[in-house]
Amino acid sequence: MTGFDRSRSVDEATLRYLARAFGRRPEVEHTSLFPTNNLESLVVTLDAEYYPEYVESVSLELRAYTNGDFHVSYHETRAGDRRRCRWDRHDQPHNARDHYHPLPDAGTAAAVDRNYATDLTRVFEETVLPWVDDRVGTLWESATD
Length: 145
Hints:
The protein has 145 residues and is an alpha+beta fold. It has one domain (12-143). The protein has helices at 12-23, 120-143; strands at residues 28-33, 41-46, 57-64, 70-78, 81-89, 98-101, 112-113.
């Protein structure tokens, strides 16, 4: 992550809450809170059984900060091809503070401005999880074409 603001702190309470919430969901294979290779994150690995067999792995990576900034990345791997998108709230020169980087590569040039709920848990309920559900449906529809 470029332009990291050292004055912001990881919102550990929110990430712990989300880890517990995700841990209760049937489509979650496992969660990893503050893994050694990504100390500011919650990584949620989704159960590949919910996806067509050509999808090898799917995960979400969450970063939350006490100043309200966040980054939520969706990672999907199939046949060695990695696709990703990202929901962000942070100040930067390319978009509004709230913005979205779409599939397939979460590129900055394709980012679009968004308006997210103030609370990150609501961002998940209203934006991220419905998008993931739609993505699963899209993948299954394309698998039967």
